[in-house]
Design brief:
Elements (H helix, E strand, L loop, with lengths): L1 H25 L21 H12 L3 E4 L2 H6 L14 E3 L7 H12 L6 E6 L24 E2 L2 E2 L3 H13 L2 H12 L18 H10 L1 H18 L13 H15 L3 E6 L4 H9 L3 H19 L3 E5 L32 H11 L9 E2 L5 H18 L1 H11 L1
Parallel strand pairs: 1-2, 1-3, 3-6, 6-7
Antiparallel strand pairs: 4-5, 7-8
Helix pairs in contact: 1-6, 4-9, 7-8, 8-10, 9-11, 10-14
Length: 399
Amino acid sequence: MANYLRLWTVALLATVLGTIAVNYWVDPYGLYRPYRAGENKPHAATQGALIKPYQVLLAQPRTLVLGNSRAELGFDPDDPAWPSTYRPVYNLALPGAGTRTASRLLDHVLAAGQPQLIVLGVDFMDFLTAPEARDDDPAPIEKRLLMAEGGPNRWRWWQVMHDRASTLASLDAVVHSLDTLRLRGRPEAAHLTAAGFNPSHDYRQIARHEGYFNLFRQRDMENLRAYKRRPKNLFLSGSQTSPAFDDVAGILRTAGRRQIAVTIVIYPYHGHLLEILRSTGCWPLVEDWKRKLTDLVATEGGAAAQLWDFSGYHAFAREPVPGPGDRTTEVRWYWEAGHFKSSLGHEILQRIFERGTPDFGLRLTPENIEQHLQNVRLAGDSYRVENARSLSELAALAR
């Protein structure tokens, strides 16, 4: 009996150690990256909230990208447009992340290092709030951060142990390791790079099989439903602020104290999404949102803070959408109306760093904001005249 127990114990220990070794070697989530940093990690693409809080501390970036999935897919840290003085770059943007998560992630990074530049992508939808709304409850990701509610996160060690166990010794990790080996070398497999960038391999595969018309149509319908449901309000009752605006102001003040440059980017929405904002009654709020952001950067940001608006009816936003059944025409700048490709992210970076075309994007200031808003309105009128036929289906969806 004693020999049987010893054999059983040895076998169990060998199984556990073998499982840990395989999961560490394959590294299906890209959390450890012992080598083969360039290989695809299909299951990492959906695990950014698990991976990025740890990886960013190892990267010690000079530039930090914050925002939601639009920034995660749009800003490649390896893009040659980044000046050498601002490298390395880490993309800490997360799908679905709002301003509160961005603020918490910045505190996390600052607890261990000092970037030189923050690129913060802001999304209009994140600022729509009920008049009586209050701060959200802490997000699950905060358990992994060095800072919690303004002080050191004393229970972070427990979350670290849990994450190590789930990524090295769990059955899910074994299944994902086997799947990673199965998909090894396939260019269509999803991926998350060591610098936090999602190269959208899965998007490319969907576009190839279903066509860009279906990608745009599905997301247009989702956006229509979302904007119709959301409150048509930016500020809390009796005030000219909200939790989201307070988060942006806090990021600006923190960066100012630490002498970190901040560039806030209003994303380059495709014309379809701009028309959805108009058809759902959000356009006046969009303009007020830009006015408020302009005021915040001017009053809270200091000389090293900038606000860039890339959301107008520029040439990129006017890119035609292929028709139904067309599975060969590729949209160069967008995956769908809300998510831009890294090719357009490159143009944004070129413009920010004063190497791009001057008719794409504008740095907003209190002096030029009203003229800019008027110019966008006029460009929208022109866009609707030039694209009346293609926009008629979008208008039908809205109705």
